[in-house]
């Protein structure tokens, strides 16, 4: 028996990186997957085809998670097409790193909108059908930077710390409806977002701070999300799972 047989999952920001790995992992475990992206049309199309070839229902949506009305339209369509939503992974995120002295209000707002407001937008849409079904798992992608802070990343850290507080609150608000809400805090994971960290001496400097002595893979994070999405974590809510190779012990 597959862990997510007949479940419907929505994953934001799945055309690349961690989101793509989550969509593939969930499909491998039997879930039908609706996923979003912003601009990578070809990659999204390719992923949709790959998921469908795995024998599940899949659909790519070009939908900006930072815009409330777009998430409203998205979730209405997913419910029409897929019939229900069991799992929502709020993964879409960006970084616009800068020292605070040089950070413009626009840079700050963009990170907050894509990383934090998006989580409000999506969660607000999915809880209604989940409440009706009396079940659901919401997984919000935070970061170890939200747990530890980092110079030059104040907007990113604030948005990711905000996700942790939001997730705890939703866990308390909706636990009695059997809706679980958890956050995942990845460390350095090999994706486009961290490609600038990978080379030369800087990479060795980062790796020396990680007890497991390597950057994480997207599959490392997808496996954590699989645990939180499935009934294996049926008594886990309001938690932040640090998947960082021990970086933030
Ligand atoms: P990535 O490789 O840069 O991919 C970002 C994904 O999000 C893409 O699919 C992108 O779509 C989508 N996206 C961006 N803005 C969007 C928006 N407004 N609406 C909908 N989709 C949007 O990023 P990643 O490294 O996989 O990171 C995924 C998540 O994990 C982010 O929340 C990130 O903060 C978090 N995280 C990453 C790391 C890491 O080391 N990589 C560590 C901790 C936390 P397009 O392809 O169309 O642009």
UniProtKB/TrEMBL annotation:
GO molecular-function terms, A-Z: 3-oxoacyl-[acyl-carrier-protein] reductase (NADPH) activity; NAD binding
Enzymatic reactions: a (3R)-hydroxyacyl-[ACP] + NADP(+) = a 3-oxoacyl-[ACP] + NADPH + H(+)
EC number: 1.1.1.100
PANTHER family: 3-OXOACYL-(ACYL-CARRIER-PROTEIN) REDUCTASE, 3-OXOACYL-[ACYL-CARRIER-PROTEIN] REDUCTASE FABG
Subunit details: Homotetramer.
Family statement: Belongs to the short-chain dehydrogenases/reductases (SDR) family.
Protein name: 3-oxoacyl-[acyl-carrier-protein] reductase
């Amino acid at each position: 028996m597959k862990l997510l047989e007949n479940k419907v999952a929505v994953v934001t920001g799945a055309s690349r990186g961690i989101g793509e790995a989550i969509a593939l992992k969930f499909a491998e475990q039997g879930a039908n997957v609706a996923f979003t992206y912003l601009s990578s049309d070809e990659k999204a199309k390719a992923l949709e085809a790959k998921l469908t070839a795995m024998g599940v229902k899949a659909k790519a949506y070009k939908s900006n998670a930072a815009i409330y009305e777009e998430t409203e339209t998205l979730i209405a369509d997913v419910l029409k097409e897929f019939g229900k939503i069991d799992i929502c992974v709020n993964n879409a995120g960006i970084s616009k790193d800068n020292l605070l002295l040089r950070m413009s209000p626009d840079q700050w707002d963009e990170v907050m909108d894509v990383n934090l407001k998006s989580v409000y937008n999506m969660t607000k849409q999915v809880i209604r059908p989940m409440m009706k079904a009396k079940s659901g798992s919401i997984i919000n992608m935070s970061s170890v930077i939200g747990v530890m802070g980092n110079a030059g990343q104040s907007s990113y850290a604030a948005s990711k710390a905000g996700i942790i507080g939001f997730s705890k609150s939703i866990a308390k608000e909706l636990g009695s409806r059997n809706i679980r809400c958890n956050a995942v805090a990845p460390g350095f994971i090999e994706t486009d977002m961290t490609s600038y960290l990978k080379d030369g001496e800087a990479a060795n400097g980062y790796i020396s701070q990680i007890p497991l002595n390597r950057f994480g893979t997207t599959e490392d994070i997808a496996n954590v999300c699989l645990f939180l999405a499935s009934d294996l974590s049926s008594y886990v809510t309001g938690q932040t799972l640090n998947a960082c190779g021990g970086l933030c012990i």
